[in-house]
Write a structure and sequence with these properties.
The protein has helices spanning about 5-20, 65-80, 85-100, 110, 130-140; strands spanning about 30-40, 45-50, 55-65, 150. The protein has about 150 residues and is an alpha+beta fold. It has one domain: Sufe protein. Chain: A. Strands 3-2-1-4 form a 4-stranded mixed β-sheet, with helices on one face. The protein is globular. Bound molecules: zinc ion (ZN). Zinc ion binds near residues 38, 43, 66, 68 and 130.
Length: about 150
């Protein structure tokens, strides 16, 4: 795909997930509930996590924030379901490399799926925390942390 086409596809994904966030709901029977806060931007979400042994059985979120933070939480919720804890940590590392510009080589849509839509965030350092907030919070939930996760 040409770069321009990719760029507009990525923009579309972010706009769509911001407007119609997936798994945007409370989960009364969640195993883990954790809040995440990005004071720089005001993004504030609660992540709900249900585990089946080592596998993410279900994940949902609630809260408010900028388009990048909400779209990122939404896309995250769609990609981690059914994954093992280990796999989620790997995805987090790759996503983090991507948004901080450490991902070397071409970012392939095939490899990263919709997570690749956030590649452009690396050009806007102030937005990196918006994009990674939900991931930091999910990781905290997986580690059974109780205190609010902040990006500062
Ligand atoms: Zn934000």
């Amino acid at each position: 795909m040409a770069t321009d086409e990719l760029r507009s596809l990525y923009q579309e994904i972010i706009l769509d997930h911001n407007k119609n966030p997936r798994n945007f709901r409370q989960m009364p029977d969640a195993d883990y509930v954790l809040e995440g806060y990005n004071p720089l931007c005001g993004d504030h979400y609660t992540i709900y996590l249900k585990m089946n042994g080592d596998v993410v059985a279900d994940v949902s979120f609630e809260g408010a924030g900028c388009a990048i933070s909400k779209a990122s939480a939404s896309v995250m919720s769609t990609v981690v379901k059914g994954k093992t804890k280990q796999h989620v940590h790997e995805l987090f590392d790759r996503f983090h490399d991507l948004v901080t510009g450490k991902h070397t080589g071409n970012v392939s849509f095939e490899e990263l799926g919709k997570l690749a839509a956030f590649a452009g965030v690396s050009e806007f350092p102030a937005r990196v925390k918006c994009a990674s907030l939900a991931w930091h919070t999910l990781r905290g939930a997986l580690e059974q942390r109780k205190e609010t996760v902040t990006t500062e």
